[in-house]
Design brief:
Shape: globular
Mean pLDDT: 96
CATH topology: TIM Barrel
Bound molecules: glyceraldehyde-3-phosphate, 1,3-dihydroxyacetonephosphate, zinc ion
Distance between the termini: 28 Å
Low-confidence stretches: none
CATH class: Alpha Beta
Largest sheet: 8 strands, parallel, barrel
CATH architecture: Alpha-Beta Barrel
Number of strands: 12
CATH superfamily: Aldolase class I
Strand content: 15-25%
Number of domains: 1
Number of helices: 13
């Protein structure tokens, strides 16, 4: 059993409290490999942003669970040099069983998500409550979910989104004891968040997605005032990276994300954790495709993974500074 405290990590409690009071959101970035991890740590250190490192079950399968938690420990050591007061949480993204959550808690995670949103309400409560009981014994925080996002949630494909029903949130939060709640208000996972027929087109012919259901968020906030809300599927699918991919041999079509102004609006509300994975994937893929096209004779992975890491770092700094408002908040929270 490894405690996250011995790894120099924190749970999400204090950062969420400060994020709600300060009307900003904590970024939660997914990682699967070393370059992504370096980019996240370097960008958040430099922009002095509190952050959450997320690991999905797919990432655990890809990279190996032991390697990932040791990488997180390495990141904590690296951060001490780059920004000594800053701390981060290590979070399981979309945990689907009690056993997976327990295994993460036992190997040094400071926060877990139990995603019971595909189960009937009572079953979701039962499963979430079981995870909360074990997690809280170890001072680990828990994110639950109500409502189903459209798109791909790990191995489960949800065809249609089912918005969170505000009438269920009080009972869920109260009966489970969760520390934060992921909701469904129209975001979706991946780079094709909406079908073209769900969008309108602006004068330049660019797809404009339907707005998020802020009225549902407001209703939820009224029912559980000050309670930390989480937004999944919140990549904006940055057009410059999609264009860069497609102009260097790629084929990412009809890609559409959540507009940045809507994420800024959400970050000023009770939404205090915003999940971003696809934007990082697009930034790295775009840069690697360009590096291959510009230097076809190059075969040293550092020569294409290095620029991809640097571009991801730039993108994360921009998100922290201009979208989530978390840049510069590290000192306030941790000292
Ligand atoms: O919500 C899903 C995350 O983007 C993780 O995706 O299961 O492909 O690692 P993954
Ligand atoms: P995106 O696919 O929009 O980046 O969402 C990531 C996410 O919600 C991870 O849990
Ligand atoms: Zn998600």
């Amino acid at each position: 059993m490894i405690s996250y405290k011995d790894l120099g990590l924190v749970n999400t409690r204090e950062m969420f409290k400060k994020a709600i009071e300060g009307k900003f959101a904590i970024p939660a970035y997914n990682f699967n490999n070393m370059e992504q991890l370096q980019a996240i740590v370097m960008a958040c250190a430099e922009s002095d942003s509190p952050f959450i490192l997320q690991v999905s079950s797919g990432a655990r399968k890809y990279a190996n669970q032991f390697l990932l938690s040791h990488m997180a420990k390495g990141a904590s050591e690296m951060l001490k040099e780059l920004n000594p007061h800053l701390k981060f949480a290590l979070h399981l993204d979309h945990g689907d069983t009690f056993e997976l959550c327990k295994s993460c808690i036992d190997s040094g995670f400071s926060s877990v998500m139990i995603d019971g949103s595909h189960h009937p309400f009572e079953e979701n409560i039962k499963l979430t409550k079981q995870v909360v009981a074990y997690a809280h014994e170890h001072d680990v925080t828990v994110e639950g979910e109500l409502g189903v996002l459209a798109g791909i949630e790990d191995d489960v494909v949800a065809e249609k989104s089912t918005y969170t029903q505000p009438g269920e949130v009080e009972e869920f939060v109260q009966k489970t004891g969760v520390d934060s709640l992921a909701i469904s208000i129209g975001t979706s996972h991946g780079a094709n968040k909406f079908k073209p027929e769900q969008c309108t087109r602006n004068e330049e012919g660019v797809l404009v997605p339907p707005p998020l259901k802020f009225e549902i968020l407001e209703e939820i906030e009224k029912r559980i005032p000050g309670f930390p809300i989480v937004l999944h599927g919140a990549s904006s699918v940055v057009p410059k990276y999609v264009d860069m991919i497609n102009s260097h041999g790629g084929n990412v079509m009809n890609a559409v994300g959540i507009p940045e102004e809507q994420l800024r609006r959400a970050a000023r509300s009770a939404v205090c954790k915003i999940n971003i994975d696809s934007d990082g994937r697009l930034a790295m893929t775009a840069t690697i495709r360009k590096a291959f096209a510009d230097n076809p004779a190059e075969f040293d992975p550092r020569k294409y993974l290095g620029p991809a890491r640097d571009e991801l770092k730039k993108m994360i700094m921009d998100k922290n500074t201009n979208v989530l408002g978390s840049a510069g908040k590290g000192k306030e929270i941790f000292s």
